[in-house]
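Ex. 9. Protein: RCC1-like domain-containing protein.
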Amino acid sequence: MATKRRRQNSADVGTKTKRAKFTLENAKIPQVTTQGVVLVTGAGDVGQLGLGPDVLEKSRPTLVKLDQQIVDVCAGGMHTVCLTTEGKVLTFGCNDEGALGRVTDGKEDAEFEAGEVELPEKVIQVSAGDSHSAALLADGRVFAWGTFRDSHGNMGMTLRGNEKLPFEIIQDMKIVKIASGADHIVFLTNHGEVYTCGCAEQGQLGRTTERGSSRNARSGIGKGQIAKLLHPAPISLKPSLRLHFDNVWAATYGTFCKVASKDDVYVCGLNNYNQLGLKSTVPQFLPKLSKEFSKYKWNMISSGQHHSIALDEDGKVYAIGRKEYGRLGLGAGCEDAVELQQLASLSDQKIVNVACGSATSFAVNSEGELYGWGMGTNGQLGTGQEDDCEIPTLIKGKQLLHHKVLRVSSGGQHTVILAVTDTSNDKGDAV
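Predicted structure tokens for RCC1-like domain-containing protein:
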């Protein structure tokens, strides 16, 4: 008779090793240890320059008088966000929809001068969109304020509508980096997950179908659908891919996500001029591998309305997208770039920072010099003129004569510069 099979106990079987959860210790966010001063240029009609109610425009970088030392700057559509060395947030500019995160009603000229945003913890990163701002706290929480907009108008930031004061926008998880598009926010968690919220109409959230991207989508008409868009949720990925990410960047209407420990970059959003590096120019509603952006090792990617500027780990600058106004920096007579093109005029320099406005581009080299190109209509390039620049142009001026630029941020019609005093370097006469 056959022997009876003995049931195995846990002592007889080797314990199956549980797959460790991916953990991201840190992400590439701007180093906020160097204290500097803030310079601004461009339109200031709603206070976004922070120079007071009598200064409505500047065509060259001008020093903003602040009582605190600043370690980071961010230009929104019509407002500016500054991070102080103590981890506090200062804002100035248009506050019609709450983008400043502080009460300005009844206070004369309060929008034209810097004011502090009340937050519960030290801030380590800030971001800004057209009508919203966000702050990443040292403990991994994220607070936001303002509103999102879509083609129907104001979406609100929550179902309550505009949020005039900071509120905790994503809860019960630790965030290591944030990025803002015009009307959406991207969150990178410490487990390499990417969450998004805001407007989805161009596919920038990476988690809706084209039919489900509108607040009036059949899948949830009215407040139910808006709630889905405004509540942060993970981007849609095939579980079988088992992807984790270690960096994110936001375009005006798009999102870039870099796969951890690889060069692969997944993208979603508006791609009508190939600015996401995809061949098809229709909006990409779900994350897709951009073979073009996956060719290089990126230090940072900045993307405007219809173009992208990217900085690789060797300090070289690439451009892709729409050519109008010279925003690509590839020279007069160039065509739209459907593939990434290296900027030859900057090839002999080591670039350490790049930024895009709606139709502008900037680069900072290792010597602290600032180059700008693209649309100059409102003086946002800082050249002293309102002409467009077809190639990277060295930005000069009395205020920059003894300053070394650290980084730059460009909004709709204004530009904000973070710089440190540099009296040891004679940069020649300023115009």
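Check your answer against this statement. The chain is about 0% helix and 40% strand.
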